[in-house]
Write a structure and sequence with these properties.
Largest sheet: 9 strands, mixed
Keywords: ATP-binding, Chaperone, Nucleotide-binding
Pfam family, one: HATPase_c_3
Organism: Flavihumibacter stibioxidans
InterPro entries: HATPase_C_sf (IPR036890), HSP90_C (IPR037196), Hsp90_fam (IPR001404), Hsp90_N (IPR020575), Ribosomal_Su5_D2-typ_SF (IPR020568)
CATH architecture of the largest domain: 2-Layer Sandwich
Number of domains: 4
Number of strands: 22
Family: Belongs to the heat shock protein 90 family.
């Protein structure tokens, strides 16, 4: 029997591992199973080049639980280790067995090797009082048993073991008894090991799919295969809209399948995250630095052996491959969207409710994507019957909707039902009104006005229809100056929470007697403030700006001004103003109650 001290660069490696090396304790199982898979893949490689003789047989990895003995065992039938290898790879932590193996067999299928022996093994001491290794090499060599209790002291001795391979036996410590529960182990295996490339068994059942869809060639897969894999990842989700298969081997390695899910307005952002793998070993579902921010709503899997298992934020932010992967994913998504738009525009339009969120996020945050997206970003008209690209909208509105600054005015509605009166007034003038009603549209409009220098957005209720493109001078009304002044005074009462400005204009006698509009700039600031938290509190706390445009040519004002009773005049004008505010959803609470009571009173008198 050999006894000795593990030759590490510090005596304090175990406290470091327990506290700092891994943020989650259950990661130990991933590390040990990854090592088992690594050993199995090494054997396959050596067998394929004739260095490992004979039949290699069953290569599954088995996890066994013995709650009574308080042990958890990970067993593989891979290359195993000789006593010298145990001494070198386990006792001399500074070296890595996988690194040496990669150097020796460079160019021979090394991508199949996780290459993670070394410190990964020591994660077992996070949950164990004692760890045993019982191993027998594929080479003609006696089996050996290694044991360590978490101090630098170990013992190594010859033993008997029938099969080639390695058993790691963890004697689970008092604080980690949860890892003696089958359900807890199943949950960890499901998270970290469900797509490992070697069959993994626990309690007699295989817990993984060794050949998930992303590891196969796109030409081998049917739409049903992609749908089935999505169901495997997200069993309770609706079928996805479509998917993108990533398959790159130069200048970096990247495979994966990204799905576009159906998104509702109330969608819980980041509910089902994209999962990052390294050679089919789960790394993380925090992929913020790898996947462009606007595509964080996508679902699926990306796998890159160029990203190490023990991945950190600082590594991701500084790694040049990560930036390349990020750019590649952006390009693939843009190309796929353009392809669908060009091949089947109707299908694209039908899916726009969900796709629009991705596209608009991308256009706001990524200028390269914006450049491509201008070809397939579409806007639906307020009636819901027609879609326009930006170019198509410009062509359809060039005669009527170019303002005096030479900018194309995009007139939009955020609530076609509530804004129906304004939409009708605008379309009666020949204007095209589009819907911009999603959770991102307020920010999208502001961003696009900066990026599209020749475009200006105006909400359909930002002014009377005559003023939506260019503000018109006040038209003459049939009222004289004294009557106009009297009418202005009657309307200039300031309801709580509103700041009213009143103007009298000579509109068509058939137009509404009063129109309440909300000037674009201030309303937009308040909309943005509502979603920007404390930073927007200045604008959020300000009263709503409302312009009341009184149509001096409407016949009702002749009646109001002719009425001698100033109290009656006030009630009638107040009611007309309230009707206009009601169309904007600005009449609430006590003001709405007063309006109803006043209306009844006026009807009784009438």
């Amino acid at each position: 029997m050999q006894k000795g001290s593990i030759r590490v660069q510090t005596e304090n490696i175990f406290p470091i591992i327990k506290k700092f090396l891994y943020s989650e304790h259950d990661i130990f199982l991933r590390e040990l199973i990854s090592n088992a898979v690594d050993a199995t893949q090494k054997l396959k490689t050596l067998s394929s080049i004739g260095e490992a003789k004979g039949e290699i047989g069953d290569l599954s990895v088995v996890i066994s639980l013995d709650a009574e003995a308080k042990t958890l065992t990970i067993s593989d039938k891979g290359v195993g280790m000789t006593g010298e290898e145990v001494d070198k790879y386990i006792n001399q932590v500074a070296f890595s067995g996988a690194e040496e193996f990669l150097n020796k067999y460079k160019g021979q299928n090394e991508n199949n090797i996780i290459g993670h022996f070394g410190l990964g093994f020591y994660s077992s001491f996070m949950v164990s009082d004692k760890v045993e290794i019982i191993t027998r090499s594929f080479r003609e060599s006696p089996a050996v048993r290694w044991e360590c209790d978490g101090s630098p002291e170990y013992q190594l001795e010859e033993t008997t073991k029938e099969q080639r391979g390695t058993d790691i036996v963890l004697h689970i410590n008092e604080e980690s008894q949860e890892f003696l529960e089958a359900d807890r182990i199943k949950a960890v295996l499901n998270r970290f090991c469900r797509f490992l490339p070697v069959p993994i068994f626990f309690e007699g059942e295989q817990v993984n799919n060794p050949t998930p869809a992303w590891t196969r060639k796109p030409s081998e897969l049917t739409p049903e295969d992609y749908q089935a894999f999505y169901k495997e990842l997200y069993p309770y989700n609706e079928a996805p809209l479509f998917w993108i298969h990533l398959n790159v081997d130069y200048p970096f390695n990247l495979t994966g399948i990204l799905y576009f899910p159906k998104i509702k307005q109330s969608y819980e952002i980041q509910k089902d995250k994209i999962q990052l793998y390294s050679n089919q070993v789960f790394v993380t579902d925090e992929v913020k630095d790898i996947v462009p921010e606007f595509l964080m709503l996508l679902q699926g899997v990306i796998d890159s052996p160029d990203i190490p298992l023990n991945v950190s934020r600082s590594y991701l932010q500084g790694d040049p491959n990560v930036k390349k992967i990020n750019n590649h994913i952006t390009k693939k998504v843009a190309d796929k969207l353009e392809e669908i738009f060009n091949k089947n525009r109707k299908e694209f339009e039908d899916k726009w409710e969900s796709l629009g969120l991705f596209v608009k996020y991308g256009m706001m945050t990524d200028d390269k994507f914006l450049e491509k997206a201008e070809k397939f970003h579409i806007m639906q008209d307020a009636a819901g019957t027609e879609f326009y690209t930006l170019e198509e909208y410009k062509n359809a509105t060039v005669a009527l909707q170019k303002n005096k600054d030479g900018k194309q005015v995009i007139i939009y509605a955020t609530d076609p039902v509530q804004q129906n009166t304004f939409i009708k007034a605008a379309t009666d003038k020949g204007y095209k009104v589009v819907k911009l009603e999603t959770i991102v549209d307020a920010a999208f409009i502001n961003q696009m006005e900066m990026k599209w220098s020749d475009v200006h957005f105006t909400r359909v209720d930002a002014d009377i229809a005559d003023n939506l493109v260019d503000r018109q001078d006040a038209s003459a009304s049939v009222l004289n100056a004294e009557q106009e002044e009297q009418l202005k005074k009657l309307f200039e009462q300031q309801p709580a929470g509103l700041h009213l400005t009143v103007e009298v204009k000579g509109l068509s006698p058939d137009a509404a007697p009063v129109v309440a509009t909300r000037p674009e700039f201030m309303r937009r600031m308040k909309d943005m403030a509502a979603v920007s938290g404390p930073m927007g509190s200045f604008y959020a706390g300000m009263p709503d700006e409302v312009m009341l445009t009184v149509n001096g040519n409407h016949s009702i004002y002749q009646q109001i001004l002719a009425a001698g009773d100033s109290g009656q005049q006030e009630k009638m004008t107040r009611n007309l103003a309230d009707l206009a505010l009601l169309s904007q959803g600005l009449l609430k609470g006590a003001a709405l109650t007063s309006f109803i009571e006043r209306s009844v009173e006026l009807m009784e008198k009438g």
